[in-house]
TrEMBL record:
Gene Ontology molecular function: acyltransferase activity, transferring groups other than amino-acyl groups
Record protein name field: GNAT family N-acetyltransferase
Origin species: Aliikangiella coralliicola
InterPro entries: Acyl_CoA_acyltransferase (IPR016181), GNAT_dom (IPR000182)
Domain of life of the native organism: Bacteria
This protein's UniProt keywords: Transferase
Domain N-acetyltransferase: 138-268
One Pfam family hit: Acetyltransf_1
Length: 268
């Protein structure tokens, strides 16, 4: 039976995890290259991933949408909104839509408590028929050479069908808390992932599989190994931002939903 104190503690922990999820993401964007704008507490990417954002807990949105301030942004620029507060979220959403921003795509913030994680062996039994053909030839390797980073960027770009600036990935990879992972099947690079450790909360980013390699259980196999790596890194939680297409996989691995992320684009 849960006591009032335990309920309060659980709520506090969930609020902490909500902030930790977004803080991991925005700190990674900073590593990739960003600059403060002259308005409020907004920051903007200098290159890819072309984001303009407020850190968790900031809500001064209206200044961004003054015409002269929009001129500071490179076009196109994506502004992500997270459902931190119903009132703040609604206010910013209205301001964006009234200023010509369009909803580009949606994501779901999710987390996995590594203390509660069911081992990959247990999960593999459920999906043995999917993964068995990959058992002998599937390898995940951490990479750091300039040549491998070029390969990683190329695979990620093809997986997500958008351009990625290699310079942004190089800047992120220079941080010792960032790990770039490249997955191989029969020695062919087919999938990517990026890990970023912030105070035992490990963010998983850019999990992508080449289009011609999908439907073979590669993403599941990769994520099983990623979670094992996070345990080996002494992480407490794994966080990510799931696409609509990828959400089902993460739910099946034990990830829990936190809140929605709505990405608006300004074409200029």
């Amino acid at each position: 039976m849960m006591t009032k104190r335990s309920v309060i503690n659980e709520c506090d922990e969930l609020r902490h995890l909500n902030k930790a999820n977004i803080s991991n993401l925005t700190q990674l964007w900073r590593l990739m290259g960003s600059r403060p704008l002259t308005i409020g507490n907004w920051r903007a990417s200098t290159e890819w991933p072309h984001r303009c954002w407020l850190d968790w807990g900031e809500s001064s949105a209206s200044d961004l949408l003054i015409e002269e301030n929009l001129s500071q942004l490179k076009k196109p620029m994506v502004i992500p909104l997270w459902e931190e507060s119903d009132e703040v979220f609604t206010d910013i959403k209205q301001i964006l839509t009234c200023s010509g921003f369009e909803l580009l795509f949606e994501q779901t913030a999710m987390y996995l408590d590594l203390k509660e994680y069911h081992t990959r062996k247990h999960l593999a039994k459920k999906h043995q028929s999917v993964e068995s053909n990959l058992e002998e030839q599937f390898i995940v390797r951490e990479i750091d050479s300039a040549q491998d980073i070029e390969i990683w960027t190329n695979i990620a770009a093809k997986s997500f069908d958008y351009e990625i600036d290699t310079s942004s990935i190089h800047r992120a990879a220079a941080n010792p808390e960032v790990k770039l992972l490249l997955a191989f099947v029969d020695k062919r690079p087919v999938a990517t992932a990026m890990l970023f450790d912030t105070n035992s909360v490990i963010g998983v980013h850019q999990v992508g599989v080449l289009p011609d390699c999908r439907g073979k259980g590669i993403a599941r196999k990769l994520m099983n190994q990623v979670v094992d790596m996070c345990i080996g890194m002494n992480g407490c939680y794994v966080t990510l931002q799931a696409s609509v297409e990828g959400k089902g996989l993460y739910v099946s691995l034990g990830f829990r939903e936190q809140f929605g992320i709505f990405n608006y684009v300004w074409w200029g």
